[in-house]
Amino acid sequence: MANQIYKQIISFLLCVLLIQYNIVSSVQKSFSLEKPCKHFVFYFHNIAYDEDNAANATSSTILNPMGLGDFSFGKLVIVDNPVTMDQNYLSKPVARAQGFFFYTGKTNFNSWVSWTLVFNSTQHKGTMTIMGANPIMESTRVLSIVGGTGDFLMTRGIAMFTTDLIQGNKYFRLKIDIKLYECYY
Ligand SMILES: *[C@@H]1O[C@H](CO)[C@@H](O)[C@H](O)[C@H]1NC(C)=O
Ligand SMILES: *[C@@H]1O[C@H](CO)[C@@H](O)[C@H](O)[C@H]1NC(C)=O
């Protein structure tokens, strides 16, 4: 009998130790910023609709409130933009960036982005969703990759945006450097 109680106490203590170990190890789980599990460099091409280029345009301003200062505050743009491996917007896209962005600065240019990169090629099938503040006046910005599907199921990481080229209101190109830190495939 005493032996039984003794055994129970021991196994109880072992359980407590195991639980504590799990809590501590999940908090201490770390990764190296230098060692992403996947790394991609893409170019994002925004060809704005200007009423004359319906065949060519890949993005459209759907809301543009007037009189709120000089920084497009409130302007909302829907995109279905090609994403390529190089700077040529006519190169075969590896993905499309589908979603929207809007301008959020009243006293300077600032924006906020929500895009899903949709991959549908022999190389990659799946999606990756990028979301976050995109302060476009800074030369590089880091946004969150908040999740994914398919080849990128449940991924997380960061996307570093660099403005590569701006041609007036008609076209801009971003370099998007993606580092994933959670990969299941
Ligand atoms: C398509 O857009 C590009 C970039 O703005 C422009 O250089 C080109 O002339 C356009 N092509 C047509 C057919 O409109
Ligand atoms: C993906 O590509 C396949 C083959 O080209 C096509 O049949 C399918 O409709 C595409 N899916 C999407 C979501 O674009």
From TrEMBL:
One of its GO terms (cellular component) is apoplast. InterPro entries: Allene_oxi_cyc_Dirigent, Dirigent. Keywords: Apoplast, Secreted, Signal. GO terms for biological process: phenylpropanoid biosynthetic process. Homodimer. Belongs to the plant dirigent protein family. This is Dirigent protein.
